[in-house]
Amino acid sequence: MAVLALAAGALLPTLTQAQTGKQAWTQAAVSPGLHSLGQAMSVTYRPANAVPPGAVITAVYADRDYFGQADVQTSLCWGGPQHCVDIVGRSINSRAFKGLDARQPMLLVHRVRAWNGSHRPLYIKGNVTVWYGPPPSEHTTQ
C-alpha cells in the first residue's frame, strides 16, 4: 500500500502540470572559452520541442557553473541582449519574462570581471528551463 501511495505522489506533479496547461522546455550548453576580462560571450538556448504559437512564458530558471574562482557576471536575457536580468550567485528563478513569447530564444551572457587565479580560457556550463502556458486570454473558467 505504501508503494502505491508513493507512486501516486510521484505522479501528482505530472498530472497537475498537465491539468494547468503549463509545459516547459530546457536546454544545457557550454560556452566557448572566455579569454579576457570584460569579454562578453553569449550562449543561445532555444526550445528543442515544438512550442505552440501564442504560448507565453510563466517562469524561467537558469544556472551556470564553471571550474575555478573567477568572478563572472552572467545575465539571463530573452530574445536578445536588450531584455535581461542579472544572475546573482549560481542560479536564478525569475518571472521577469512572464507573458513574453515562449518560442523566442533565451541567452546567457557571461563576462569575466576578475580571474582570481582561474585558468584561461574559462568555459561556463549553463542550463535554462522555460515554463510556458497559453496566453492569459485562454485562461477562462467555465
Walk me through what this model shows:
- Strands 1-8-3-6 form a four-stranded antiparallel beta sheet.
- Helices cover 13% and strands 40% of the residues.
- A hairpin with a 5-residue loop joins strand 4 (71-78) and strand 5 (84-87).
- It has 142 residues and is mainly β.
- It has one helix at residues 2-20; strands spanning 23-30, 41-45, 56-65, 71-78, 84-87, 91-94, 106-114, 125-133.
- The protein has a single domain (21-135), classed as Galactose-binding domain-like (Jelly Rolls, Sandwich).
Helices and strands in order:
Blueprint: H1 2-20, E1 23-30, E2 41-45, E3 56-65, E4 71-78, E5 84-87, E6 91-94, E7 106-114, E8 125-133
Antiparallel strand pairs: 1-8, 2-7, 3-6, 3-8, 4-5, 4-7
Question: Main traits of this protein?
Answer:
142 residues; mainly beta; Jelly Rolls; four-stranded antiparallel sheet; 1 helix; elongated; disordered N terminus
Give the structure's gist in a few sentences.
The protein has a single domain, classed as Galactose-binding domain-like (Jelly Rolls, Sandwich). The chain contains one helix and eight strands, in the order αββββββββ. The protein has one helix spanning 2-20; strands at residues 23-30, 41-45, 56-65, 71-78, 84-87, 91-94, 106-114, 125-133.
**DSSP helix count?**
1
Protein structure class: mainly beta
Q: Largest beta sheet, briefly? A: 4 strands, antiparallel
What Rg, in angstroms, do the CA atoms define? Answer: 18 Å
Report how far the terminal alpha carbons are from each other.
36 Å
- CATH-defined topology: Jelly Rolls
- CATH architecture descriptor text: Sandwich
The domain tally reads: 1
Q: Provide the residue-averaged pLDDT.
A: 85
The ordered string of helix (H) and strand (E) elements is: HEEEEEEEE
Percent of residues in helices: 10-25%
